[in-house]
């Protein structure tokens, strides 16, 4: 197959690595893969290292970026692309416009990774009429789209995945150096994510022991200044700001508990990374997170806004060694059996083949 991946994003986010893993896997299976995104983005740099993927500098600057529409048309015709997998909001719209404007003989598949913010009927019609199918990265996300009026026949669930050798480059001495540099002692509660609902954790701190350390990886203190001023937590809180993926994996190894509070995640790739790292997980009861976490079996779920319940669950996992062991063993097994990228790539390949016919 000749496949073109597009995205208007490609920065520091779980979706960037999800796309990279998928591109790499399909190349390894012998397919010709192209990528259209912004030159110099993290995704561009990652894919360039593969050496076998042609990258096309397409900015997808707006929802009506006609220059990007023309660029997509040229790429599809020049390289005889069979299928476009559009990953970002702006490029999803623009790939359909390119297909219709230039009468392109190409299939279009969307991948949706987050809850839809605004799905009026005209947008739903446009996305359905212009695509051969839409991939949902979890069953929970599919259910949200069904409630918005999408046809179940047009939606295909394929879970995200991570490589089994995810921790290959994580070095114990580097982890211990981070612990020493930041002076981390006692129980460490970690959240690795761009800005989401980290305020839920800050609100829960008044119910937790003061000797806990809280580690926010991927955001700056200023992102939650109002929460901090209002709650005045007594615990030590560390904000790392944006870090590389490899650095984030090192920080993850410091955690006694990993928490992902969210109102937007269709999956939660960082949770799978924690499961493979044998770090116990807690996540919001939202979207695709319950597809990963079975409450009370391999982790805990909590309702956004219930900070006391979140605190109780954090403390149980931080201090109950038997429960931690039970959860991390089951979570590791689930990650290996359900959420490895090899399975993701195989299912995408089968779906694309079916659509192309």
TrEMBL record:
Top-rank taxon: Bacteria
Domain named Glycosyltransferase subfamily 4-like N-terminal: residues:
14-165
Question: What is the uppermost EC class here?
Answer: transferase
Query: Where is the signal peptide, in residue numbers?
Result: none
Q: Which residues form a coiled coil?
A: none
- Keyword Transferase (UniProt): yes
EC numbers for this chain:
2.4.-.-
**Name of the protein in question:** Glycosyltransferase family 4 protein
User: Which species is this UniProt entry from?
Assistant: Marinoscillum luteum
Tell me the lineage of the source organism.
Bacteria, Pseudomonadati, Bacteroidota, Cytophagia, Cytophagales
């Amino acid at each position: 197959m000749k496949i073109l991946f597009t995205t208007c994003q490609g920065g520091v986010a779980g979706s960037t690595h999800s796309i990279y893993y998928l591109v790499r896997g399909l190349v390894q299976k012998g397919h010709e893969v192209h990528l259209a995104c912004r030159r110099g983005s993290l995704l561009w740099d990652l894919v360039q290292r593969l050496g076998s993927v042609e990258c096309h500098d397409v900015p997808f600057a707006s929802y009506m970026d006609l220059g990007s529409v023309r660029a997509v048309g040229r790429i599809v015709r020049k390289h005889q692309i069979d299928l476009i997998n559009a990953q970002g909001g702006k490029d999803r719209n623009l790939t359909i416009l390119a297909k219709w404007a230039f009468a392109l003989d190409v299939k279009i598949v969307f991948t949706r990774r987050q809850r839809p913010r605004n799905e009026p009927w005209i947008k739903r019609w446009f996305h359905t009429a212009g695509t051969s199918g839409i991939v949902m990265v979890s069953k929970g996300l599919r259910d949200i789209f069904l409630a918005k009026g999408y046809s179940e026949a047009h939606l295909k669930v394929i879970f995200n995945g991570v490589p089994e050798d995810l921790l290959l480059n994580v070095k114990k001495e580097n982890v211990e150096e981070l612990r020493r540099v930041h002076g981390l002692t006692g129980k460490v509660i970690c959240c690795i994510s761009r800005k989401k609902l980290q305020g839920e954790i800050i609100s829960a701190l008044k119910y937790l022991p003061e000797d806990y350390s809280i580690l926010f990886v991927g955001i700056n203190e200023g992102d939650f200044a109002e929460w901090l001023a209002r709650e005045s937590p007594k615990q030590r809180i560390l904000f790392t700001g944006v870090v590389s993926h490899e650095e984030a994996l090192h920080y993850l190894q410091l955690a006694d508990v990993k928490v992902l509070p969210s109102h937007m995640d269709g999956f939660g790739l960082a949770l799978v990374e924690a499961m493979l790292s044998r770090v116990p997980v807690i996540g919001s009861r939202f979207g695709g997170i319950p597809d990963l976490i079975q409450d009370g079996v391999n982790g805990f779920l909590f309702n956004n806004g219930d900070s006391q319940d979140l605190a109780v669950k954090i403390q149980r996992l931080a201090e109950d060694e038997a429960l931690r062991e039970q959860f991390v063993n089951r979570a590791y097994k689930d990650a290996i059996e359900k959420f490895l990228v090899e399975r993701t790539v195989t299912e995408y390949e089968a779906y694309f083949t079916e659509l192309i016919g």
